[in-house]
Amino acid sequence: MDFSKLPAILTPDLGLLFWMLLSFAVIFFVLIKYALPYIVGMVNERKDYIDESLKKAHEASERLENIRQEGEAILQEAREKQAQILREAAETRDAIVEKAQGKAREESARLIADAKAQIEGEKRNAIRDIRSQVAELSVQIAEKVLRDKLSSDAAQMEMIDRLLDDISVDNKKE
Q1: Average pLDDT, stretch 51-59?
Q2: How far is Cα 18 from Cα 25, in angstroms, rounded to an integer?
Q3: Three-state DSSP class for 2?
Q4: What is the DSSP letter of 158?
Q5: pLDDT at position 114
Q6: How would you class 91 by CB atoms within 10 Å of its CB: exposed for 0-12, middle for 13-18, buried for 19 or more?
Q7: Cα separations (Å) of 167 from 51, 122, 139, 156?
Q8: Distance between CA 136 and CA 143 in Å, rounded?
């Protein structure tokens, strides 16, 4: 192939090629010496920042998990305390109801005993009143009968004799 027939832009001179290589080498050296460490440092900083962010995110995730577990434990404890309080309230309620029923039974028994005693007292008073009324009526009836029978002196003397005979017969028997 003949390079002489190609346009000049495609076939550079040897001098141009030298200067181009030299400028490339200088720029490459400057880039390697000054720019590349700065770029690598920035990339490493960015990598460290990302690693640190991932580490913090992982720690936050762990703390969030711990908080969630603590929350569940607290919630479970609250449920257990609620159940215990409800059991204690039910036991207290049952004890109060039982105590109230016992007091009601005692009070009803006392009221019944008081009522029976009052009824018995009133019964005795009524019987006493009836006996006194019957005795008074008996005396009044006997008085009226005796007045009718003993209206004459002969009937009175006959009655006295009979009573004296009854008394003397009772004294002899004893």
Answers
A1: 95
A2: 10
A3: coil
A4: H
A5: 93
A6: exposed
A7: 140, 40, 21, 17
A8: 10
Quick one: pLDDT at residue 93? Answer: 94
Find the distance separating the first CA and the last CA of the chain, reported in whole Å: 189
Q: Look at residue 6 and give its three-state secondary structure.
A: coil
Q: How far is CA 156 from CA 99, 102, 105, 133, 160, in A?
A: 77, 72, 68, 28, 6
| pTM of the complete model | 0.40
**DSSP SS3 for 1:** coil
3 state DSSP class of 11: coil
Tokens of 71: 């929350």
Instruction: Report H helices in 31-152.
Output: 36-149
Closest CA to 150 of 167, 142, 135: 142
With a CB cutoff of 8 Å and minimum separation 6, the contacts of 156 are: 150
C-alpha 105, offset from chain centre: 27
